[in-house]
Structures are given as C-alpha cells and as structure tokens.
Design brief:
By secondary structure, the protein is α+β, with helices and mostly antiparallel strands. The protein has two domains: about 210 residues, D-amino Acid Aminotransferase, Chain A, domain 1, CATH 3.30.470; about 90 residues, Dna Ligase, domain 1 (2-Layer Sandwich). About 30% of the residues lie in helices and about 25% in strands. It contains twelve helices and 13 strands. The strands form two sheets. It has a seven-stranded antiparallel β-sheet. A six-stranded antiparallel β-sheet has the order 1-6-2-3-4-5. Helix 9 packs across helix 12. It is globular, with a radius of gyration of 20 Å.
C-alpha cells in the first residue's frame, strides 16, 4: 500500500501510531515534541510569526524578498491608504501575524481607486480600508491579538508556470531541517482558494523531487489529482526552474533565523528569480501526502550525520539532492 493510499484511507482517529511510523510518516505530536520543541527555541518564534520581523532579518542577511511598499499600523494609516500605496498597480496585503493564508488580499490591478482581486472581484477604497481595519483589530492574527498590515509588491511569477495556477502566484514550500532541504511541494492556487496558495482553502499541492525539481504527484483536499481543476493543465509536467538556487535559498533560512525545523515558502519571480515569501516554524504535514513519502526517514538520516553542523549550505543542499531525490534526471 502506498503512503498516499494509506493516508487517504486513514479515517479512524484511533489508528495504530506504530503503523504510521512503519511508513515513515511523522504525526503532529511527534513533529511538535521531537522537532519543533527540540530544535526551535521559543524565543526565536517571533522572527517567523511576525512577517515584518521576518522581512527585516531577510534584508539584514541579504535574502531576496518581495519589495515592501508600506506598513499600516493604525487607523490614520488606513485613512491614508491611497498615499501609502504610492500609485502601486499590483500588490498584496497581509497581516503581520496571520496564519494559514487568512487575511491575505491579492490585488492584481488598481486603477482610479478601484481594486481588482485575483478572482476578478472588484473592491472599492472603502472595501480595502475595511479589510485593513479588520487586520488591525486582530481578526486574522494568531490568538486574535491586534496586528499590523504589510503591503508588498505583487510577485510576477515566471511564465514557465502558466496554466499551473489559477489567478494566483504558485509558491514552493521546502521543509528545512538544520539547513538540509528535506521535502518540498509546490502549492498552486485554484478558483476555490481565491487565488491563494493555501491547501486548506482548496489549493493543489504538488510533491517536488528534491534532486530534480520535477513533480512527483499532486493532491487536492488530500485526494490525488492529475490535472489542475480550473486550467486542466497536466500537473505531471511541472518542473521548477533554478532548482538548486531555490534549495540554496531555503537552506540559508536556517542560518538567518536560527530555527532548526522550518517551512520556507519561496516564489519564482520572472524578473528577480527565487524570493523568500515567508517562514513557518510549525509547517504542516500534508507535504507527506503530496510526496507519497514520510518525513521521518529523511530526518533520521540527517540526525545520524556526525559532521552535519560543520557542513556548508552548498554541501547540505548537495547531500539532500543526492539522498532525497525521486528521479535521476
């Protein structure tokens, strides 16, 4: 039985955890206790839970990220949003402490105080201001605490991904353990996900071979799919360009953040190449379903390396490409 079929058929919440482990599948408790708690110092969590802090340390470490247009911190900023936007035609608004894609507003075109979302819906200035006020009130933040809003340039994704995503920017999630890229998937927006690359909202997850950047398999709502539900693009043909550069960028986030077990979200801009979108100190486990493989064997192999702390970023990337690949070329 494949990991994918096993996970898809796993409906009984009292399933034997030893059976899960025999497939190399990491469960939530094991992730939380053995990896997040052990390798992620709690004092460092604000660096990734707060997107503004993430951007600041990325700039400090010369890690490429989308350009920051402005920050909305109070209601006066909300009133002055047109001035803050400085005539930007395409941008993304996101809560600094948001999670799971909540509160992200993607504007693909702005003209004469009319704003068009990725889904085609038209918003007025008042609509955008109301959304910003909701962000400040903590409607989308962790724990419902008051928040601030970041406004960034919209990524113009590489045309190699045309047809693979619906009205949104596809991103590549790479799980990094102590600087080693362990497992990867690409998240593709759909009409159901409102142009956002969030699996819980209906985006498609495509497992990506660590060696080659080629698609392994694709899932939507944890069920296998062969074609994009909106564009009908054959997902098996997907291949991420600049793959070594993507893995190198992901690996560098370990030194940048100090967090040992993280999810790195990377986008491919047609002008600037791979760019860090954000970090996640508690990356989800659906990546195992998309790859039809468990995380545990790969994590254990890294833990067994006696010299892992002295290896360079390049050496860690090459090790991962050699040992965690699915395809040879």
């Amino acid at each position: 039985m494949s990991v994918l079929n096993f996970l898809s058929n796993l409906k009984n919440r009292y399933a034997n955890p030893w059976q899960l482990q025999s497939f190399g599948i990491m469960g939530m408790n094991q992730r939380n206790v053995n990896f997040i708690s052990r390798f992620n110092q709690r004092k460092l969590f604000p660096l990734v839970d707060n997107k503004l802090k993430t951007k600041k340390i990325a700039i400090e470490h010369k890690v490429k990220t989308p350009n920051l247009i402005g920050v909305v911190e109070n209601q006066q900023d909300v009133k002055n949003i047109i001035s803050i936007l400085k005539g930007s035609k395409a941008f993304c608004i996101k809560p600094s402490r948001g999670s799971g894609g909540k509160g992200i507003l993607v504007i693909t075109h702005a003209e004469h105080e009319h704003f068009i979302k990725g889904s085609g819906q038209v918003m007025s200035t008042h609509d955008v201001q109301r959304h910003l006020s909701n962000i400040l009130a903590g409607l989308f933040s962790l724990g419902g605490k008051p928040d601030i809003a970041l406004i960034e340039d919209l990524i113009h994704f590489d045309h190699v991904f045309d047809g693979y995503s619906y009205e949104g920017v596809p991103d590549t999630r790479v799980i990094v353990f102590e600087g080693f890229p362990v497992m990867s998937m690409m998240r593709l927006s759909t009409q159901a996900s409102d142009g956002k690359a969030n699996l819980h909202q209906g985006a498609v997850g495509v497992g990506i071979c660590i060696r080659t950047g080629r698609a392994v398999r694709a899932v939507q709502h944890n069920e296998p799919v062969k074609y994009h539900p909106d564009t009908e693009k054959d997902l098996a043909t997907l291949k991420v360009p600049h793959w070594t550069e993507v893995l190198t960028l992901a690996s560098s986030c370990y030194n940048m953040s100090g967090l040992g077990y993280i999810g790195t979200d990377i986008v491919l801009d047609e002008r600037f190449g791979p760019m860090l979108l954000e970090l996640n100190a508690r990356p989800g486990l659906a990546i195992q379903t998309a790859n039809n493989a468990g995380l545990l064997p790969r994590l254990k192999l890294i833990l067994a390396l006696p010299n892992r702390h002295s290896m360079s970023i390049s050496q860690k990337v090459q090790f991962s490409m050699q040992h965690f690949g699915v395809f040879n070329s």
